[in-house]
Amino acid sequence: MDNSQYLTIQALTKYIKRKFDKDPHLSGIYVKGEISNFKRHSSGHMYFTLKDERARILAVMFSSANASMKFNPENGMNVLLRGDISVYEAGGQYQIYVKEMQPDGIGDLFLAYQQLKEKLEKQGLFSEARKKPIPKFPRKIGVITSPTGAAVRDIITTIERRYPIGEIVVYPALVQGERAAQSIAESIKKANKNEEIDVLIVGRGGGSIEELWAFNEERVALAISNSEVPVISAVGHETDFTIADFAADMRAPTPTAAAELAVPHIDDLLERVLNQKIMLIRGMKTRLKSERARLKSVTSSIIFRNPRRLYEQKIEAVDHLTEKLNRNQRVRMQAGREKLGHLDSNLKRVHPRRLWEQKNEQHLRTAKQLQANFSTILRQKQNDFSRTISTLEALSPLKIMDRGYSLVYSEDSKLVKSKEAVKEGEKVTVHLQDGKLYCHIDSIEESEN
Predict the structure, then answer these.
(1) Rounded to whole angstroms, how far apart are CA atoms 449 and 218?
(2) Domain coverage including residue 20
(3) The OB-fold nucleic acid binding domain covers which part of the protein (predicted)?
(4) Does 412 map to a domain?
(5) Do 48 and 38 form a contact (C-beta atoms < 8 A)?
(6) If we measure between CA atoms, which residue out of 72, 77, 80, 94 comes closest to residue 29?
(7) pTM
(8) Statement: residue 382 has pLDDT above 60
(9) Which of 211, 215, 217, 213 is nearest to 201 (CA)?
(10) Looking at the structure, do residues 91 and 128 belong to the same domain, yes or no?
(11) Which among 41, 188, 232, 334 is placed 20 to 30 Å from 125, CA to CA?
(12) Domain count within the chain
């Protein structure tokens, strides 16, 4: 068979891929299933397996398609997909290329809301420890909202009615649409640059979750959390809760309620001031009455009329104290003298001069005793030396020579004591009392003894 009839794997795969791509039933299809083996590549592309109880298919969703998603897909999540079926040539496998994806059974915005809320809560963004107190008497109130909406009118009207001495600074911002989150975050940062702003109201009127979504964005939550100025959130109606509500230092159910929380009512303040004024006047009258009675008591007292009594007793007390001081001083001086005498006697007893005299006397006694012992030992040694000299002189060969004897030494200077010590023909030296004789041995005779 001719080899040209055989197809290459690449050609076969391309042919199958063209079949898939041309089939209108495999383009723009809707599929539902459960996500498994989910992986998000560093490029932003998503790779996962879509499965049900009896089958599975590989799925790919490129970053250009998933950039606008409001939730993060996870393993085990049931989803609804729209995409195209095609063949991945390098692997020879068919898979679905996802164009759109949303959760099955729950809106994607609500799911994204839950996921972001859980994420920021774990980061501690909603912690009560981060909440800043709202000032009781703000001078300037910043308002971040749409300048044309009903919310800004409600806030301004409420503040001017309740707290006309407060100044309102409106920071216009988009509160709906794709650029709304960025606009709100930038307005919060701008308001923080104004050091005179005491409190911020951030919000808008009610609406659907899509209309309120800007206040569920992470950048808005971070801007609120990082704000140095305390923030009151006022988004939607009383039943609407957004991420901004949790991140703010205080939540108001409506923009009007936010204005009421931001400033006190001027009538309440005036009433409090009036009550304080009444209490102050009453207290001053009571204090004045008390001080007048005290002054009258002082001026009518005996001491005030006769002040000498006030210091006469003190003079007498000073005399008693002086006498007691002198008596104690004498006692202490006598005790000090006795103690000084005792210390003086002890000092004399252990004075260095006294110790030196004692040691010197001891030294002299020891020296005399040493001299006496030395003299005794010297005499004893002299006597022993004399006896030894006498003994040596008695035993000395020289003394023998005084009696007529002589000493004979061999050629190696050894004393000749026997005829065995020399031989015929050798030379010997004869030591006499008055000199030496150098002799030659001609013959040796043995003694008859």
Answers:
(1) 145
(2) 9-105
(3) 7-102
(4) yes
(5) yes
(6) 80
(7) 0.48
(8) yes
(9) 215
(10) no
(11) 41
(12) 3
